[in-house]
Here is the input.
Amino acid sequence: MIKANKLAYEYIRRDEEGNVEGIIRALDGVDLEIKKGDFVAILGHNGSGKSTIAKEINAILEPTEGTLFVNGLDVSDESKIWDVRQSAGMVFQNPDNQIVASLVEEDVAFGPENLGVPSPEIKQRVAYALEKVGMEDHRGSSPNALSGGQKQRVAIAGILAMKPKCIVLDEPTAMLDPGGRREVIKTLHELNKKEGITILLITHYMDEVTGADRVIVMDDGKIVMQGTPREIFSKVDEVKSHHLDVPQVTELAYELNKRGFRFPPGVLTKEEFINALLG
Amino acid sequence: MLRDITIGQYYPSGSVLHRLDPRVKLFWTLLYIVSMFVFNTFLGYVVAGVTLIVLIKISRVPFKFMVKGLKAVWMLLIFTLVLNLFMTSGEVIWQWKFLKLTREGIRTAVFMGLRLFFLIIGSSLMTLTTTPNQLTDGLETGLRGLKKIKVPVHELAMMMSIALRFIPILLEETDKIMKAQAARGADFDEGKFKDRVKALVPIFVPLFVSAFRRANDLAMAMEARCYRGDVNRTRMNPLKYKQIDRIAYLLQFVYLAVLICADKLLAPLLTKVLPML
Amino acid sequence: MLYLDKVSYTYSPGTAMAMPALHEVSLEIPDGQFIGIIGHTGSGKSTLIQHLNGLVKPTGGVIYYNGRDIWDEDFSRKELRTKVGLVFQYPEHQLFETTVVKDVEFGPRNMKLENLEVQLRTFEALKTVGISDELYDASPFDLSGGQKRRVAIAGVLAMKPEVLVLDEPTAGLDPAGRDEILEAIFRIKRERNITVILVSHSMEDVARFVDRIIVMEHGSVKYDGSPKEVFRNYKELEEIGLAAPDVTYLTAMLRERGVGLPDVATTVEEAADMIERYCKH
Here is the structure.
């Protein structure tokens, strides 16, 4: 689905007078392969390069070096740019700043309208997309009347209506309250399981990645850790050295192991913890 | 505070007028405004007035709601009245120092006031029965012909609809920024004019920064959703005329015909006949 | 000391759009306490804190600051706002000056203090929130997210408030940025020993720092007590869309399974201590 080879992105930083202050290498030789139907989470602190990857995949930024293929399409190929964007849809952080229309259903229709889909099919797609994110009852509402979590689900529906193979989400929950975060993550897992859509979730909340098939940790423009959530969270010290947290239960097991307990590495859930302690 | 402005706010009542094609309503409004300058007899006012009353009844929008949104316009109305009342020369019927009240003045003032009132109520009737989205849709489709002479109709309509979406968000944001600066001791309603203008800086700078950030985000999100202007674009609900719209178009010309007949033929006839009675 | 006596607030009262936001909230906020306010979006917590410094006038009830009704005619609410400092959500969105120092000076300058005093307070505040002096003349817009927010907090701190209220100070930040902010808040509390009120969605953060938690629900106070007293109601909290920290659930589950822990835990530290003590016996 997504294949990056030695991908790099550089930009020039200028001061107020426009003089070059230096070159920032936001991505530095990233090799990445994401298979169809995967749920992959990218973790990293701000400025680690994780958002740059998302923009590369959506052909908003062009690679400085290396290659990136999305659904078999080269993102550097200008003539394929709209096909790239259609096959890998993108959801952004701020729910307000990505909703275009003043009515929920009109906003969901925006993508297919841009693609030139015939009117009757747009209606079908909008109904399908709103149902998949559980927002069909709000089709006639104003986005301003929705909660943050609901707005993000509308944004996801807007991408879904373009029939993408993959959805890239750049910190979609950073501005939501815990309830909204749960709604969005649950929706993503459902889309992944039932519709087979590849999900690339970029986040810095640890508890959101425990359900992912694979976790990638980025720091300083490079991939520094990669594996299943359990593999990643069994290395508490390493995760923390990249300015990230681990889930509280993992942290507790790690703390107790320092005091002579023997929890297996990478305890993720409360049940695992209890079984390990009592078993 | 800033959210109390209700002029022309959409009022959903599901009437026939609400269901009409926005292009019909745009054209109706235009024609109605033009018709205000066509007549100058009492009978003309009756025709225009009765038509408006009928339309208001059909719209099922409470008259009170309409007038409530016009607070800002009342000032203009009163100003026009006063100006016409005392500034028209003619047969003087009352005088106090330099203020002269003339028969013609009263006549012009009353008629000008009525005209303005019709004009405002008539156009707000359109915005009251049409959602902003329908309105931009109607403008875009209705003015499609202007594209040939390089008027960026689609872009203008898109700008309008985005503005409509973000105005409430920016108003709320202004409210929040004002509160936040007030929490840092800023004072917006004290001091001299110069101080008050200066007090706006802590509001406008963050507001502009935020508006630019939002614009930037939105542009990126629109591009990510394959927006590329009006190239091969389709619509979910393309505007299509129905039977009722055709009838409405027809009625417009009936209105205009009746108005002209009443004003140009019937009124002179009546003035000739009346003295004989 | 702040005292709220049956404070109610309704948006657009007397119209069809009337919306009750607070209902007869009575609270006592003594000096020097570290308080956490939790509640989901729309529970009335943001409306509540805007009452504390007189930005919003209650539609019912009275608010007393040091024994005086803050809506008395001769009470200066402008002065109150310097005593009860309020840091809004995403405070970096209110930065407007050309340099960090000038922005922080905005508050004290509005208080019409002497130049020297303004500068003194500014540097003090910036130091407390951990902004190093090479950033003093930088444009606030060039800073990182965590730094911007600390500058914005310094802007309120420079007024030397006796009560500092922060509305979701860690929202939208990554773990590193969040820790910077929480450390800064903890430092403020320790150095100045003022009352700090922290509105937060993050139960973990709240449990780590505060002495007292107030839970808001439907415009009323649902729980008010120490973190332990409040989080003991984790089942009820869940019903209103809130959650206790994960370790609270874990320790509660262990107790249900017959593990003799003395109580539920609210922090990782505490849970580790409890389990260690239990297993050593």
